[in-house]
Amino acid sequence: MSTSTGIGLRHLLSTEGLRREQAEALLDTAAGMEQALTGRAVRKLPTLRGRTVVTLFYENSTRTRVSFEVAGKWMSADTINVSASASSVSKGESLRDTAATLGAAGADCLIVRHPASGAPHRIAAWLDRVGHSHLGGEGHVAVVNAGDGTHEHPTQALLDAATLRGRLGRIEGAHVAIVGDVLHSRVARSNAHLLATLGARVTLVSPPTLLPVGVGDWPVTTSHDLDATIATGPDAVMMLRVQAERMHGAFFPSAREYAVRFGLSQQRADRLPDHAVVLHPGPAVRGMEIASSVADSGRAAIAEQVTAGVHVRMAVLYHLLAGEDVA
Amino acid sequence: MPSRRRGASGSGGASAEGERELLSAADLARTVARVAHEIIERTAPDGGTAPVVLLGLPTRGTYLARRLAERIGEITGAVVPTGTLDPTLYRDDLRLRPTRALAETELPPGGIDDAVVVLVDDVLFSGRTVRAALDALRDHGRPRAVQLAVLVDRGHRELPIRADYVGKNVPTNRSEDVAVRLVEVDGEDGVSLR
């Protein structure tokens, strides 16, 4: 029976703290979006007509920005892209003023990517305080975190969960290994929390130097040995990109040694259970964290992840913008 | 929980003494059979020029569409494709309520182009669900004609929409609920007013 209680989401800033029923509602809605659009000539829904979605990106991105933009457009929202380099940010405008300006200009939703962890949270708090003061707007401006520093990237975790649900049929009880540069990975953090919330068992596999301080508080187990983890027969392996741009120190001796110890080679992939899925958030560095032959194999769900990304982001926009404002 | 098309007052508090049965399980079966005959008469699914497709509006319309197709099959031998169409994303009252969960959408493999599409729902009230369904239909293809079959028409239309096939006309007060129960969802068949 369809309920009309909503899922009580005002912003989507992190998967940590997202309740299980909220996460499942988002995944169910994403599946519904996929169903609503399959086999149609016209991939357009009128659901968000008259709503304005602004993507505010302080870091480079192709797939995430395009994915949000497509999601908005397929639901008839007006989507506007602001990139920091081409805006008043380059004239020295503060984050707070930029956010307030976009809110006052009529944005109903800000999709924010920022190199500083916590930036979207600050924006959400500022906009909530400003509240109804701007003229003509609806008042509430929803904020979606599209990746903040090394903190979180909740829609990536949701699309990974949607992909796993599609491939494995369930997430409850599944064993997922997240492999690589956990320290710099907002994808790893968001996934660890979301997958645990959804009932999966998560193992982080990483060199000791690339595990964050405080990982002991995460709902995961850790390992420094990829072969040992593969021997336990995980249902899914999520390979993380080595984020050279965030590494300002010597985290491992050489790229070659990293690839040998923590890369998903064809030999390692062959030892996975037949049903096991390989995920990569992209962009993949082939030959480094994942062998080309594995990335192109039937196990890899990389293309499905991109497709699921649009449906998941449609679901997020739907729950944030389609219903009445959540008080 | 039975389907309740609530009155505009939204109070919806069903008092136990105020419940009145409109259709028993046997009445409901007879009504479905009669509507099936009417659809056959009007659309000739066993030899007409255009194929007939029954599309149910979730949740209970979907099961009613399947029952109608089954009866039509028993009577004429024709196989009538059925599907389900969730109009939620096309509703005009989304902003007035918290977001709803989406229901299933699955069109028959042959699609709906050039078919006579009969939309099937349990209760016809304001007409807004049907309006949303018509808009959704337009994005899925171009039927030759669209008709509407409902189990109960309770009046209080807010749009110029009428049903082609009506199981039972029931004059109601806006604040009353029409509760349709189907075995597939609720474990029993029946319609009551409270």
From TrEMBL, chain A:
Residue ranges occupied by any Aspartate/ornithine carbamoyltransferase Asp/Orn-binding domain in the UniProt entry: 173-320
Species, as recorded: Actinomycetospora straminea
Question: Entry's InterPro entries?
Answer: Asp/Orn_carbamoyltranf_P-bd, Asp/Orn_carbamoylTrfase, Asp/Orn_carbamoylTrfase_sf, Asp_carbamoyltransf, Asp_carbamoyltransf_Asp/Orn-bd
**Complex formation:** Heterododecamer (2C3:3R2) of six catalytic PyrB chains organized as two trimers (C3), and six regulatory PyrI chains organized as three dimers (R2).
Record function comment:
Catalyzes the condensation of carbamoyl phosphate and aspartate to form carbamoyl aspartate and inorganic phosphate, the committed step in the de novo pyrimidine nucleotide biosynthesis pathway.
Q: Which Gene3D superfamilies match?
A: Aspartate/ornithine carbamoyltransferase
What is the protein named?
Answer: Aspartate carbamoyltransferase
Q: Which UniProt keywords apply?
A: Pyrimidine biosynthesis, Transferase
Q: Which PANTHER family match?
A: ASPARTATE CARBAMOYLTRANSFERASE, ORNITHINE CARBAMOYLTRANSFERASE, MITOCHONDRIAL
Family membership: Belongs to the aspartate/ornithine carbamoyltransferase superfamily. ATCase family.
Q: Which reaction does it catalyse?
A: carbamoyl phosphate + L-aspartate = N-carbamoyl-L-aspartate + phosphate + H(+)
Name the gene.
pyrB
Biological pathway: Pyrimidine metabolism; UMP biosynthesis via de novo pathway; (S)-dihydroorotate from bicarbonate: step 2/3
Database matches in NCBIfam families: asp_carb_tr, PRK00856.1
Q: Which HAMAP family match?
A: Asp_carb_tr
- The residues forming a coiled coil are none
Aspartate/ornithine carbamoyltransferase carbamoyl-P binding domain: which residues?
Answer: 10-165
Entry binding sites for carbamoyl phosphate:
R63, T64, R113, H153, Q156, G282, P283
User: Which E.C. number(s) belong to this protein?
Assistant: 2.1.3.2
UniProtKB/TrEMBL annotation, chain B:
Transcription listed as a keyword: yes
Q: Which InterPro entries match?
A: PRTase-like (IPR029057), PRTase_dom (IPR000836), PyrR (IPR023050), PyrR_bifunctional (IPR050137)
Lineage top rank: taxon: Bacteria
Return any one Pfam family short name. Pribosyltran
Q: What is its EC number?
A: 2.4.2.9
Question: For this protein, what reaction is catalysed?
Answer: UMP + diphosphate = 5-phospho-alpha-D-ribose 1-diphosphate + uracil
SUPFAM superfamilies referenced in this protein's UniProt entry, alphabetically: PRTase-like
- What stretch or stretches form a coiled coil here? none
Under the heading Gene3D superfamilies, the entry gives: 3.40.50.2020
Q: Which residues form the Phosphoribosyltransferase domain?
A: 22-171
List the ranges annotated as motif PRPP-binding: 117-129
User: What Gene Ontology terms describe what this protein does at the molecular function level?
Assistant: glycosyltransferase activity
Q: Which UniProt keywords apply?
A: Glycosyltransferase, Transcription, Transcription regulation, Transferase
What does this protein do, in the record's words?
Also displays a weak uracil phosphoribosyltransferase activity which is not physiologically significant. Regulates the transcription of the pyrimidine nucleotide (pyr) operon in response to exogenous pyrimidines.
Concerning PANTHER family, the annotation shows:
BIFUNCTIONAL PROTEIN PYRR
**Membership in a protein family:** Belongs to the purine/pyrimidine phosphoribosyltransferase family. PyrR subfamily.
Would you tell me the protein name for this molecule? Bifunctional protein PyrR
Q: Which gene encodes it?
A: pyrR
